[in-house]
Write a structure and sequence with these properties.
By secondary structure, the protein is of the alpha+beta class. About 25% of the residues lie in helices and about 30% in strands. The protein contains four helices and eight strands. A hairpin with a 2-residue loop joins strand 7 and strand 8. The longest helix is centred in the middle third of the chain and has 14 residues. The protein is globular. The model has no long low-confidence stretch (mean pLDDT about 90).
């Protein structure tokens, strides 16, 4: 577990029960210039029932110098892709984000290196569990030499939910 925080602290920050977290996969601080905690949950049901405690997420993010929490599942009944995610970053004024390539890239590396995913073209869904739903698809291509990742490229697709006009 990253920092001085416990699984119970993370559970509380996400409004989840102990069985919702995938404790066999470590909660990990990842960084490719910006830091996130990546947190695996058991399934889509756990992802959907998250009620974020924005204040606690903010405190933990401040203490660990994080952008925020990137919560994911690889549960095949929850997504057609390698993973589906939710991202919370109240420290940066983002209660929930629908597309986060700078977190999806490190998650793809984690899935490849630590969860045994053999694919080097990885698709990560985000925003499907938001209210309202704001689904995006982030595609990550890993370049490798042997078992080492040497480079990644992330990009993807989103969909227009609504248009607003701002007077400046």
């Amino acid at each position: 577990m990253a920092g001085q925080y416990t699984h119970e602290d993370i559970q509380l920050a996400l409004g989840l029960d102990k069985q919702d977290l995938c404790l066999e996969v470590p909660i990990t601080r990842v960084n490719t210039g910006n830091s996130f905690l990546i947190i695996k949950v058991a399934n889509g049901e756990a992802l959907s029932k998250i009620i974020p405690n924005q204040g606690l997420i903010n405190t933990i993010s401040d203490d660990l110098d994080l952008i925020g929490f990137y919560v994911y599942t690889t549960d095949k009944s929850a997504t057609l892709y390698h993973a589906t995610t939710r991202m919370f970053a109240p420290r940066y004024g983002i209660e929930e984000e629908s597309a986060t390539g700078m977190a999806a890239g490190p998650l793809a590396c984690f899935l490849y290196q630590y969860e045994g995913l053999s694919d080097t073209s990885i698709s990560i869904e985000q925003g499907a569990y938001m209210t309202p739903k704001s689904a995006s698809l982030i595609n990550i291509d890993l370049e490798t030499q042997g078992s080492e990742i040497t480079r990644l490229m992330a990009g993807g697709y989103g969909s227009l939910v609504k248009t607003i006009e701002l007077a400046v």
